[in-house]
């Protein structure tokens, strides 16, 4: 499944890899990768495989789930498709309460003690999805964990989830995607070093520098 979903994301260009022409994230981080999983909704086969995959992740890792909660906005459609296959209720959670009307942050019916799984499209640092988890917990829900399409596998995210004692699982990940990209010749073998160095420390731009090994004269 990991390789299949990674291949889908690359083929529809939901994920782009450009280690020599880095993208700039909203946070200002320079990145060799850009992921836009909203594109998956435009491709029925990809959409179907993601929905089935999320359903299987939830059944395998989060037994007893009673509600699927989508993160606004990218996680909403995937949460709805997974919840439909599981035949359980679905809601979605905003990043913050509305400034008008009832001021809801959670849209849909949830109740104290319900076992909830959060569906997210992408995990980078984990900050935004953990805010959704906190909002559900504030309503008295028992959050079993997070299921997502893709993760960059950043150490910062792993630490954040561990701190909050929230498990997470994904359909595919950065390591799988870069391996598949290499197999599909979507990147050059020489680019792998940059991709690995970026993931180790995204906040540093040192990964963009070419690593050049020079032999000094007289040395073997």
Topology:
Elements: H1 2-11, E1 15-17, E2 23-24, E3 30-31, E4 33-35, H2 44-61, E5 67-71, H3 76-86, E6 90-93, E7 106-107, E8 115-123, H4 127-138, E9 142-151, H5 155-164, E10 168-173, H6 174-183, H7 192-200
Parallel strand pairs: 5-6, 5-8, 8-9, 9-10
Antiparallel strand pairs: 1-4, 2-3, 6-7
Helix pairs in contact: 1-6, 2-3
Portion in strands: 15-25%
Kindly state the mean pLDDT as a whole number? 92
Poorly predicted residue ranges? 211-220
Number of E strands: 10
Task: Round the Cα radius of gyration to an integer and report it.
Answer: 19 Å
Number of helices: 7
Q: How widely separated are the two ends?
A: 46 Å
Helix fraction bin: 25-40%
* Quaternary: single chain
Side by side, the strands of the main sheet go 7-6-5-8-9-10
Class from helix and strand fractions: alpha/beta
Q: Return the string of H and E elements.
A: HEEEEHEHEEEHEHEHH
Largest sheet: 6 strands, mixed
């Amino acid at each position: 499944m990991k390789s299949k979903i990674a291949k889908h994301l690359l083929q529809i260009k939901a994920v782009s890899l450009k280690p020599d022409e880095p993208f700039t994230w909203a946070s200002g981080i320079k990145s060799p990768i850009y992921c836009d999983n909203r594109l998956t909704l435009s491709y029925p086969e990809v959409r179907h495989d993601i929905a089935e995959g999320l359903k299987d992740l939830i059944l395998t890792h989060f037994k007893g789930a009673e509600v699927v909660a989508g993160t606004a906005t990218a996680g909403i459609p995937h949460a709805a498709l997974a919840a439909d296959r599981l035949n359980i209720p679905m809601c979605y959670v905003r990043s913050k309460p509305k400034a008008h009307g009832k001021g809801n942050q959670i849209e849909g019916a949830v109740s104290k003690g319900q076992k909830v799984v959060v569906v997210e499209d992408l995990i980078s640092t984990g900050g935004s999805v953990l805010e959704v988890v906190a909002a559900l917990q504030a309503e008295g829900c028992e959050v079993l964990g997070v299921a997502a399409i893709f993760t960059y596998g950043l150490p910062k995210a792993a630490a954040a989830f561990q701190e909050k004692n929230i498990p997470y699982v994904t359909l595919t990940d950065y390591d799988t995607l870069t391996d598949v990209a290499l197999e599909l010749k979507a990147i050059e073998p020489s680019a792998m070093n940059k991709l690995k160095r970026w993931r180790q420390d995204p906040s540093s731009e040192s990964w963009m520098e070419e690593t050049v090994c020079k032999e000094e004269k007289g040395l073997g």
